[in-house]
Every structure is written in C-alpha cells, then in structure tokens.
C-alpha cells in the first residue's frame, strides 16, 4: 500500500491538512505531462517549505457528465497513489465530483475550494487545464484568482514526444486501443498496467497445460484484444514474465466481460483472490477464434515462446 495521505473532501479540514502546494488535474495515468505539473508544485512546495499535494476528482468528471461512455480509466486509485508517492507527493486531496462541485463557477471553485477549503499556498496546472461550470476557468484566470486570493500559480507547458505530439491520457488510450503498448509506455514513462483480484475460473488453461491468472478489466480502457508479452507484479513484490490474452476468448463460450488471462512462466502457486498488477510489454497478435482447443493450445505455446524470446533472451 502507498504511504501517501489521502484526504477525501475539502470542507472543514483541520489546519494540519491545509496549506499545501498543490497540482490540480485528473492525473489519470500520471503520464509525463502530468509529471511536469507535479514537478512545478514540488518546486513551489520546496520554496514555501509546504507539503506537496495533488488534487484529483472522484468520480472522474467525464464519468459524471457522460456516464454511458465506454470504460476509459488508465489506473485504479491504488496505482495512482503509488505513482504519486514515487514523485514525492505527501497528500492526495480527492474531491467528490458531485452536483455542488459541478455547478460552481470558476471563481467559486478558486475561492471556496482552493482558498477557503484547502488553504492552498500554490496551485500548479497544465497548459490546457479548465475548471468551473462550463469549463470557463483557464490557467490565465487561475493566475488572476491567485493574485486576488493570495496563492501562487504556475502553469506547465506542453510535453511532447519525438513526433511532436503532446503527451496526454487520450493519446495513451488511443495507443492501447490500437495495440501499441510501447507507445503508451513512452507517454506514461512506464508500461501500462492492469491491476485486479485474481478470479476463480473454470481452470481450463490448467487442464490444457497453461494455467492462467484471470483479472476482469472493469473500468480500465480496453486495449486491443489479443495476446501480449507481460510482466506481473505479485503481492510480495516478485515480478514474473508471462504471456496474456486480453479479450473474450471466442474459442471458449461463456466469457462476456473482457478479461486479462495471464500465464506466468515457470510459476505454479495459488494466486486466487490475490491482487496482481500486469504490465503490457508488447503486442504479439490479435485475438482469434480457433476451430478446436487443440489448435488453440498449439498457438498459445507458440505465443509463449515468442514472449519468452522477447522478455527472457538471456535464457535462449
């Protein structure tokens, strides 16, 4: 578990929970652009000798306004907290995105939430940050409110890759949907990872010679269905290479919700009901329907060898 302090809400906070230099945003993925915003807040925290905080929202505003959209998250909250801890963040302020917050004007948000509620001493935002009802607040208006209310403001410039495209959560999702996990990792600064509880299944893989740990995708963005070379972190910290299928396994009837099914190489331990986190390293092939279980098994063995060659070349 992360050691970051998590504070839910912004009202009636004790003095000990107020007065931080904060970075504000959704921070889904904590990609390299987000990291620049947090670095600006960290610099201000050092200068002010204040705690370093991050403001985020639950649920994500996109979920609130467009509840019928497909799943899009890049992180569970535990992953977010660990990523922020690695960047030196002391406190995460999780603001409830509800009707009250959604209907605040940008001035009301700056005054009631940032100034009166959190007592923010500095606010860092991204170049494209918007806030307040109708998304009328901009980095420029944030600077104005900071001058009026007495907190510093810094604005992060865009961060772009070699192609010149700016890093964004949208770009990460698009790369994953197209089966390009290496591109997603370049934006994130680390591989995209799916974390969840290992489900009890029918143990078909074990009977066929490739036992899998199965995790539901849930609220995660659905990567391109297919087979991936992976590395999985276990609860005790061990990292195990493997090969995984993401999808609905059309050869086997009965799976309707997308599933991560990962075969951990040279591993034979009970993982049921444990939380594991699986990095997607490389896309090997699209998901397909086989004429028989025997044909599927033969292909899985070829996939496993391809993943071993990629992840464990020293053993070849």
Explain what the structure shows.
The chain has helices at 32-48, 61-65, 77-86, 99-102, 106-117, 139-149, 169-177, 181-188, 204-208, 293-311, and strands at 5-8, 21-24, 52-58, 91-96, 122-126, 152-156, 193-197, 213-216, 226-233, 239-247, 259-264, 275-286. Helix 1 (32-48) links the parallel strand 2 (21-24) and strand 3 (52-58). The chain is α/β, with parallel strands linked by helices and 316 residues long. The chain is built from ten helices and twelve strands. The strands form two sheets. A six-stranded parallel β-sheet has the order 1-4-3-2-5-6, sandwiched between helices. Strands 7-12-9-10-11-8 form a six-stranded antiparallel β-sheet. The protein starts with a strand and ends in a 5-residue tail after the last helix. The mean pLDDT is 93.
Lay out the secondary structure.
Blueprint: E1 5-8, E2 21-24, H1 32-48, E3 52-58, H2 61-65, H3 77-86, E4 91-96, H4 99-102, H5 106-117, E5 122-126, H6 139-149, E6 152-156, H7 169-177, H8 181-188, E7 193-197, H9 204-208, E8 213-216, E9 226-233, E10 239-247, E11 259-264, E12 275-286, H10 293-311
Parallel strand pairs: 1-4, 2-3, 2-5, 3-4, 5-6
Antiparallel strand pairs: 7-12, 8-11, 9-10, 9-12, 10-11
């Amino acid at each position: 578990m992360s050691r970051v302090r998590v504070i839910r809400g912004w009202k009636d906070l004790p003095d000990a929970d107020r007065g931080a230099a904060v970075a504000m945003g959704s921070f889904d993925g904590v990609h390299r652009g987000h990291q620049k915003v947090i670095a600006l807040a960290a610099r201000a925290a050092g200068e002010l000798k204040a705690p370093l905080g991050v403001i985020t929202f639950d649920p994500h505003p996109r979920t609130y306004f467009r509840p019928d959209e497909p799943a899009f998250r890049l992180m569970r909250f535990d992953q977010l907290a660990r990523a922020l801890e690695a960047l030196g963040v002391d406190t995460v302020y999780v603001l409830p995105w509800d009707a009250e917050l959604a209907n605040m004007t940008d001035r009301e948000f700056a005054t009631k939430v940032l100034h009166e509620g959190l007592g923010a001493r500095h606010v860092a935002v991204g170049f494209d940050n918007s806030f307040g009802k109708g998304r009328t607040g901009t980095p420029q208006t944030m600077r104005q409110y900071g001058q009026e209310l007495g907190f510093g403001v810094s604005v992060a410039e865009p961060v772009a890759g070699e192609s010149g495209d700016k890093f964004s959560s949208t770009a990460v999702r698009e790369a994953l949907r197209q089966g390009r996990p290496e591109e997603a990792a370049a934006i994130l600064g680390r591989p995209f990872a799916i974390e969840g509880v290992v489900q009890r299944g029918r143990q078909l893989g074990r009977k066929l010679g490739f036992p899998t740990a199965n995790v539901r995708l849930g609220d995660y963005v659905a990567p391109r269905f297919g087979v991936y070379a992976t590395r999985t972190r276990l609860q005790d910290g061990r990292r195990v290479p493997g090969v995984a299928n993401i999808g609905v396994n059309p050869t086997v009837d009965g799976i309707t919700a997308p599933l991560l099914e990962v075969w951990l190489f040279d591993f034979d331990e009970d993982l049921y009901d444990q939380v594991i986190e699986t990095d997607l390293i490389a896309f090997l092939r699209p998901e397909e329907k086989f004429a028989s279980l025997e044909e599927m098994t033969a292909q899985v063995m070829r996939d496993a060898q391809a993943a071993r060659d990629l992840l464990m070349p020293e053993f070849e």
